[in-house]
Amino acid sequence: MKSRHKRLVLVGGGLVAVIAAVALVLSAFRQNLVFFFTPTQVVAKEAPTGRSFRIGGLVETGSVQRDAGGVTVRFVVTDTAHEIPVVFSGPLPDLFREGKGVVADGKLDTEGVFRASQVLAKHDENYMPPEAQHAVDQAQKAAQTVKP
Amino acid sequence: MNGAAGGRSALADHNNDGLSMSGQGKLLYRFASPQAFYPLAGALWPWFAAAAMVLGMAGLYIGFLVAPTDAQQGDAYRIIFIHVPAAWMSMFIYIIMAAWAGLGLVLNTRLSSMMASALAPTGAMFTFVALWTGALWGKPTWGAWWVWDARLTSELLLLFLYLGFMALHGAIDDPRRADKAAAVIALVGVVNVPIIYFSVQWWNTLHQGASVSMTAAPKMARIMLWGMLVMALSFWGYAIAATLVRVRSIILERERHSEWVARLRAA
Q: Residue A123: its chain B contacts at CB < 8 A?
């Protein structure tokens, strides 16, 4: 065996070993690598209790209520299967919209209300001009009225 | 091909002999010699630099003046024309760098390791640009400059891998030993690249998924996609030109005791 081939085997073998090690570590940490928990996971008690965590989902359409002072906001986060009510006092990101993605950091209180200390907007990977979005919205509305 | 290499170390001469003995790939191997590659790189880099300039201006024109605003994000999305091509380059350059470094480790070819060293600063720069523009984009859209989600964290790790590669290479005085040690970092770090790319699929992240992929139709308006692809081509041109210029200085520095560099200096 030439020394060149020996080195190739060593480098290749080392690389395979490292990849295997990383794959094992990643599968072991799978749960801890999630940035947020979905409402379904929270209902299934998979989210940590007693310490703060993040929930993510869509802001339910029509659920956003501002208190009289205008500082405190209540809304519902849904993954279309389950809902979690959220209370938050503070500035909301510009992209916070009903029907759009949101990630909130905070704690569940005893009544099952999520008291958020930070709210982040999660936008999707679709980019289109406003006219195209309008056309898509019209088409969806039309499809909904036809269905029943 | 290396008749004039009188001043080279015994190790280097041994390597070149080993390469020229295997006859089938003569043309490929001719440019594996730093002496032969030096003028080739000098002839090529201005073309790539010019392409980068022209495509960059076209891409910025499309991105900032032709492409429409986004229905969700308004004008804030326009940073995508820099952010996404820079992020692509940061991952792609790492793979190329690791391939060169690995080739240098296995075949003991000096030019391969020099190419790896020449690529590292450009890759680190694109990684920094991706992180920086990402922060500028995250604040107005997500509401945070930085979050520790899987995508952002693994991209930050990529920056540290580039910096670690350069630091380790710089810390060892003997360039051949430095090549070998740094190559190990480069190769080990390769596992991070698929983690960056697939992080948004494997885990819940704040970062959105890919708009453009090999397997699905692009999820963006066509003119926006064009702007992004032209910018990506421009970044390619820049990366190649910068690497060729840098590898020329590395060749000159590391071959400074050889006869051909002395002749070059005299001329």
A: 72-73, 141-142, 208
ipTM over the 0.90 cut-off: no
B262: distance to nearest CA of chain A, Å? 31
Contacts of B229 in chain A (CB under 8 A): none
In contact, B158 and A107? CB cutoff 8 Å: no
Total domains in the fold of chain A = 2
Structural domain boundaries enclosing A29: 1-33
The CATH number of whichever domain residue A95 belongs to comes to: 2.40.50.140
Per the domain annotation, does B218 fall within a domain? yes
Closest residue in A to B199 (Cα) is A33
Determine, yes or no, domain membership for B28.
no
Report percent pLDDT > 70 for chain B. Answer: 90
Residues A40, A29 share a domain: no
For residues A49, A55, A57 and A62, what is the CA-based torsion angle, rounded to 10 degrees?
90
Structural domains in chain B (count): 1
Q: Hey, are the CB atoms on B143 and A119 less than 8 Å from each other?
A: yes
Question: Per residue in B3-15, pLDDT tens?
Answer: 444 444 444 444 4
